[in-house]
């Protein structure tokens, strides 16, 4: 990471881009103002509305779909090149549905964040995303769910937790109800988690 300038963020998306928008808004007039700037948006889905959001914010947005590559390495290399060309400090996964290549994880060790729609370590792992998470929470009978921002490592949802926040689950809640509650929390805590990571980095270089 750059020690003195604002941190350059890349946001990786696949869908609507609500969390991406909350991060962008926070860099303009919120917790991340003066601390960070979103310089690149990478989508794994050419139809993702997040691409339009990025364009509306005058942020470079590209689509890199794994199905268009012969193998995972070429797919990963293209993304890695874009990240390096943009001089990215932190990578924020925000509903990104493609697997992150090992080369990217190792190159950006300790600098990749992900948001998960549950209270990890519960309801995490391969296949646990979107409605599948909320269905599992309801089936379990838990009265709490929430969102977790964590560092990304080479396994699904096992990286060090940065920040969590809970929501209450009621007996008549549907998966859609839980999803709405959790999304509200996600958009609030992701900028907070990014700020925490940046401030921890500044402490390390004795600038905070």
Structure report:
The protein is α/β, with parallel strands linked by helices and about 210 residues long. The chain has one domain (about 5-205): 3-Layer(aba) Sandwich (Rossmann fold), CATH 3.40.50. Helix content is about 40%, strand content about 20%. The chain contains six helices and seven strands. α4 links the parallel β4 and β5 (about 110-115). α1 (about 20-30) crosses α6 and α5 crosses α6 (about 175-205). The longest helix is centred in the C-terminal third of the chain and has 30 residues, at about 175-205. It is globular.
CATH class: Alpha Beta
Tally the beta strands. Answer: 7
CATH topology: Rossmann fold
Q: Give the overall shape, derived from the CA principal axes.
A: globular
Gross CATH architecture: 3-Layer(aba) Sandwich
| Helix-strand makeup class | alpha/beta
Pattern of helices and strands: EHEHEHEHEHEEH
Number of helices: 6
Low-confidence stretches: none
Share in helix: 25-40%
Rg, Cα atoms, Å: 17 Å
Q: Largest beta sheet: what is the strand line-up?
A: 3-2-1-4-5-6-7
CATH superfamily: Formyl transferase, N-terminal domain
Return the domain count.
1
Q: Into which percentage range does the β-strand content fall?
A: 15-25%
* Ends apart, CA distance between termini: 15 Å
Please state the average pLDDT score: 94
Quaternary status:
single chain
- How would you characterize the largest beta sheet? 7 strands, mixed
């Amino acid at each position: 990471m750059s020690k003195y300038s604002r941190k350059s963020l890349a946001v990786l998306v696949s869908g609507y881009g609500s969390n991406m928008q909350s991060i962008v808004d926070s860099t303009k007039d919120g917790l991340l103002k003066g601390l960070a700037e979103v310089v690149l948006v990478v989508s794994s889905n050419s139809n993702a509305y997040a691409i339009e959001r990025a364009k509306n914010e005058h942020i470079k947005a590209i689509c890199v779909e794994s199905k268009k590559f012969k193998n995972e390495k070429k797919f990963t290399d293209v993304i890695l090149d874009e990240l390096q060309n943009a001089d990215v400090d932190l990578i924020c996964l925000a509903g990104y549905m493609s697997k992150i290549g090992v080369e990217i994880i190792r190159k950006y060790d300790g600098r990749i964040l992900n948001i998960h729609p549950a209270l990890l370590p519960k309801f995490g792992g391969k296949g646990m995303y979107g409605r599948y998470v909320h269905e599992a929470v309801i089936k379990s009978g838990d009265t709490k769910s929430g969102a977790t921002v964590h560092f990304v490592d080479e396994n699904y949802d096992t990286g060090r937790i940065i920040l969590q926040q809970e929501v209450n689950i009621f007996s008549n809640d549907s998966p859609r109800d839980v999803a709405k509650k959790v999304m509200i929390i996600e958009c609030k805590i992701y900028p907070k988690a990014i700020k925490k990571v940046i401030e921890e980095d500044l402490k390390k270089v004795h600038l905070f």
